[in-house]
Structure formats: C-alpha cells, structure tokens
Write a structure and sequence with these properties.
- A seven-stranded mixed sheet has the order 6-5-4-7-8-10-9, with helices on both faces.
- The chain is built from 18 helices and 17 strands.
- By secondary structure, the chain is α/β, with parallel strands linked by helices.
Length: 614
C-alpha cells in the first residue's frame, strides 16, 4: 500500500531563515525517501541514507519541526492560491487529445479520427486527475518489465483477446507480461535473436528503434537489455490501454498512429524500425506510410516487416484473403522499397528485413517523386505527403548521408554530425561541449538535492525542454530512460538528440501530451515557463504536468525566480509539496530551482467530485 509521508510546512514560500537554508542539503537528500517505494521499505531506506549522507550542518536537526517554522514575513495581503478540486472519477484515464467522444466526430479515412484532436480552451478540465483506488507505485525496473499492478491499469480486455499470443496474463492482483507477441510466439528474445543474425544489434551500431503499432511494447522492452532504445507507439483504440501497459512496464511509448499527419520525430532519427503485424496498410495512398518511415529512418538503417503479407503462401487462408490479393500486396511493397533505395537483406518464415542505402549515389532508382519542402524536420501538425525525402548530399559513394555516427555508447558524448556540419543555427562544437559539461554539473547537483535520482525509484523520466539532450545524457543508465521533448516554439534540436542515441519527440505544451495519466516518475522543467510566458496559461501546463506525473512523483523546475514565484503560487493549490532552493552556483544567481512532490491520493470516497462540483 502506498506510503503517505509528505513534506509539510510553508508550501510555496522561499525559506529565508538561516536554519532552513543551512538545512536544505539534508532536507532534499531525504526528499526521495519520503516517496513511496511500493514495497514497504521507506523507513529502512531513510535510515540507510541518514547513515550515508555527509550533511553535518545540524546533526540533530528535526526536519519535521523546521518545515513548520513560520517565516518572519507578512503574507496577509497575498491572495491565497486557487485550490484545484479532483476531477470526477470517470476521468481517471483521461487523455485530452485522444478522447473517444471527440475522436468519433472526425473522419475514419486514413485514421484521422485516431490522431490528436485537442479540446478548445473552454473545454479543458480545470481539475486534478485522480488515480484509481488502490493505486500502487509500479514495480521497480527490471521487475516492471514482466509485472504490473492490476489496480493501476484495471483492464483485462487484452488478457482475453490476446491470450493465445502471450501479450499479457492476469494473475491475482498483477498482470504478467510473458514477452510474447503476435509474430513472436516463442518470445521476444528469440525473435530479436533472429533479427540479430541479419542486423548488427550487438555491436552498438543499432541504438534507436521505432515500433509502429507496438501492442504492449514487448519488442522494445526486450531490446533494452541489448542497449537499444525503442520509441513505441500505438493508437488509443479497441486494444484497450496497450500504451498504458507499456509505460506501466517502464518502456518508452506514446499514443500515436500513422494517419494523415507526419510523425513527431525528425528525419534520420532511427537506426531500425519495425512493423510486427501492425496492420498498417503500407501500399495505401501510393506508399505514403512507407515514405514516412523512410523519412525517419537513418541512411543505412533497417526496416523489419513481420506479418501480412510476408509468408502469404502459408497464411493467406488464415487471413481470409486470396492468393492473388496478398501476392499483389507484397509485390507492391517490394517495388516501393526499390523506389526508396531499400535493399532486401532477409526473408525467412514470417520475417523480412530491408536496409536503406547510405546515400543517393549508391542507389539506382529509375524515378522518384521527391518532397519539395526543404525542412524534413518541420512536422508538427504537418500533412503527410506522398513523396520521398531526399538524402543529404554526399561527395563519395561510400559517405553516409547526413554523417557517420559512432557506435553507442561513444555516440552519447561525441559531437553529433548535425553540430559538426553546422546544421543547427547557433550551435557550434564548442557550445555543444559546454552544454555537455554544464548538464553533468547540474545533474550532480540534482542528485545532491534528491539522492534517489539515478536509481530505480525514477524509471520514466521526461525532460520537457530538452535542448541538446545533455540532461538525459548525464543521467544515462539502464535504470532510467528519458523522453526528450523539444517544444515546437523553440529551436529544433531533436535531430541532435537522436544522433546522441537518445529518443524524444516534438510537442506544444499549450496542449495535452500524447500519453495516459500517471506515466512519468520525474519531470524536468528547465526554462519551460519562461518559454511559454504569454503563449498559454501556466495553470494549463501545470495541470497537464500533474496529469502525467505519478502519485509521489517529483518535478524539478529551473527558471528565473520571478517566473518560479508565479508557478509556485498556482502549484500551491495542486496537492503538491514544494520547496525552493538556490542555483548550483549560489544565491546571487537569479535562476532558482523549485522541487515539487505530488501527494498520494486516489479516487476514493471524498476525493472525487461530480460534474456539478467542478
């Protein structure tokens, strides 16, 4: 059962008492231990950290009493923070931009109704999304790969519909994920082993992968132990909660679909992409969906297709299709692949693998319709087109278009080709290296504030304004993964992030994120509110942060002090515990750090509201 220890005292007030200031290092070091571990270990963990920490300013400091000190400042004229009520229990799994009622008002053609359709401002919820009753902090990684609490995602639909395919099983109060899938009945490991006989998965050449139509993301889950980071997506459809299951397991995933809008990733992002019986109509719209995969696939990258129409001679009757139909479909895919400069490397049983050429000089296509847009990374709400994204220019047939990447993990801190080739305005090799050093320093400071950062306590992490990805790089560990979000209103650096072997997506924080509630353990918000000041209400962004943050999850805000004071005022009414601290370079720096911990509460009696109450 969840621990309910919370920070107490002067929420939303900057500590000016010398005793409080001197006690901050110890206070924050213990911060994470007061958040629920999920296994009744909180007291033991707190004792262990007490013994390990070197905070000796006041060895006998009573943090409980310090938090209740009244600061000698008159706040009588300061308006009280607006108190946000819990939403009705029916909103427990609310996804603002993928809600079913709104979706059904849009055309089904090209899956338009499954794309993002966000509510207008007047329809946005102004309340806190409740966790389901009985919610428990997910199992720590790697156990979470195989188990999830039923109370957290109380949907058994897939256990029945996909029972034969071993997607997920219901056992007592938990779900078990055996690692099966529609196209890998012998398990994801065996499937990946077969792929590794063709694709250099083991040597670090393959680091970023894309799973289109991921199910519960077992492919991505099992690639993690091979140091491959997979971005998985699936629509919010009749396969109930598949992306929610993936994130509950600690595996990267978003709600998404190949429809009429471009994918929210930059060009040349992924070393490998797959469709495992994803049921995407690859030959529809003159191959538009395959062309979109080509856009995000790196030169020299691999595309895997398992499922229809591969091995049609064996399965055409099972698929209830004619021989002529499925044979014609595969023939069309083969011709499209040739047009894209993909060479088939393997076809055996249910699996086929193609490899994209490293440049246009090594490709001998007869003719092609190339995209006219000069910016293949301008994708947010942009219509997908039936055209081929051209390769970057090269001088020789052996040169990799866009630049050769180092093998992982070397590529994490190596200078990315987009930087060395001056493809990101204002970003030089020198400024990139300074950014790397700066965020190593900052992440170390965060770990001093909260000693549980970098441990399995925080598995799913999001950087809401990722810049060059150096926060995620400094955190890199098998224990965590980071969703690097590049806001659509700032400089486009997402291509650099992918070239470092990290993953992420574009997003506009004036809208809801493409995920379920309670899917991230830690949010990092550096400069996000300065960026969005006068763009949309801070309240809307904070409510969205609360929606996607797990109970007893943590937020680290970094911004100018005047901006953080506005944030703190709103957050004071959101069932968060708050504490402000100085910049790592000292109190004279106007940029400050605000740490928030979301309180544990659920949609139990007295905690949810009716529609009339909202």
């Amino acid at each position: 059962m969840a621990s309910k220890h919370h920070l107490s005292g002067n929420r939303g007030r900057s500590p000016i008492s010398i005793f409080v200031v001197l006690g901050l290092c110890c206070f924050f070091y213990l911060l994470g231990t007061w958040q629920k571990s999920g296994f009744g270990k909180a007291d033991r963990l707190a004792m262990a950290i007490n013994k390990q920490t070197e905070c000796k300013v006041f060895p006998n400091l009573n943090f409980e009493s310090h938090h209740s000190i009244e600061l000698p400042v008159d706040f009588s004229d300061e308006p009280k923070a607006k108190v946000f009520k819990p939403c009705d229990v029916k909103y427990t799994d609310y996804t603002p931009c993928q809600e079913q009622d709104r979706a059904m008002t849009f055309p089904r053609e090209n899956m338009i109704y499954r794309e993002r359709h966000c509510p207008p401002k007047e329809e946005k919820l102004q309340c806190l999304i409740p966790a389901p009753e009985g919610y428990t902090t997910p199992f720590p990684w790697p156990k979470s790969r195989d188990y999830a609490y039923y109370a957290n995602v109380p949907y058994k639909h897939l256990t029945v519909e996909k029972a034969v395919q071993n997607w997920v099983q219901y056992q007592g109060n938990v779900f078990k994920f055996p690692g099966g899938g529609t196209m890998f009945p012998h398990g994801a490991d065996a499937y990946i082993d077969e792929l590794a006989s063709v694709i250099p998965i083991k040597n670090g050449s393959i680091r970023t992968a894309l799973d289109t139509g991921c199910g519960v993301a077992s492919w991505g889950a099992y690639l993690l132990k091979r140091n491959v980071l997979t971005m998985s997506f699936a629509p919010k459809d009749n396969h109930e909660a598949q992306v929610q299951f993936a994130l509950e397991r600690g595996v990267p995933a978003i709600i998404g679909v190949l429809g009429s809008i471009r994918l929210p990733y930059p060009s040349r992002a992924f070393d490998m992409a797959q469709c495992s019986r994803c049921l995407i109509p690859w030959t529809a719209n003159d191959g538009m969906y395959l062309m979109e995969v080509d856009r995000v696939l790196r030169p020299g990258g691999y595309w895997i297709l398992s499922g229809p129409p591969i091995n049609w001679k064996t399965y055409y009757q099972t698929w209830k299709r004619t021989k002529e139909d499925v044979k014609a479909e595969q023939t069309k895919i083969e011709k499209l692949a040739e047009q894209l400069c993909w060479e088939k490397k393997y076809e055996k049983g249910d699996i086929a693998v193609w490899r994209k050429s490293v440049n246009s000089k090594s490709c001998k296509r007869k003719s092609a319709q190339f995209c006219e847009s000069k910016d293949a990374d301008d994708v947010w709400y942009q219509k997908m087109e039936t055209c081929i994204t051209p390769f970057p220019e090269v001088e020789s047939a052996n040169e990799v278009a866009g630049g050769q990447l180092k093998k992982f993990p070397d590529r994490l801190f190596a200078v990315p080709p987009r930087v060395s080739n001056s493809m990101v305005p204002g970003v030089t090799v020198e400024s990139y290296q300074k950014d790397v050093s700066l965020w190593k320093k900052r992440v170390n400071y965060y770990k001093n504030i909260n000693g549980l950062i970098g441990t399995t306590r925080y598995r799913n992490i999001m950087d809401m304004n990722a810049g060059l990805g150096s926060f995620a790089a400094a955190l890199d560990s098998p224990k965590v993964w980071v969703m690097n979000v590049v806001p659509t209103i700032t400089q486009n650096t997402l291509g650099v992030i992918y070239e470092r072997g990290l993953i992420g997506m574009y997003h506009d924080w004036c809208e809801g994120f493409s995920t379920y509630p309670r899917t991230y353990d830690l949010l990092h918000a550096s400069g996000i509110f300065s960026l969005y000041e006068n763009k949309c209400d801070f309240e809307e962004i904070l409510l969205e942060m609360d929606r996607i943050l797990r109970p007893e999850g943590t937020i680290i805000f970094r911004d100018e002090v005047n901006v953080l004071n506005k944030v703190r005022k709103i957050a004071g009414g959101m069932r968060w515990d708050l504490k402000m601290t100085d910049h790592e370079d000292g109190p004279l720096v106007p940029e400050k750090i605000l740490v928030a911990v979301k309180q544990y509460w659920t949609a139990s009696a007295g905690n949810s509201t009716t529609n009339e109450d909202e």
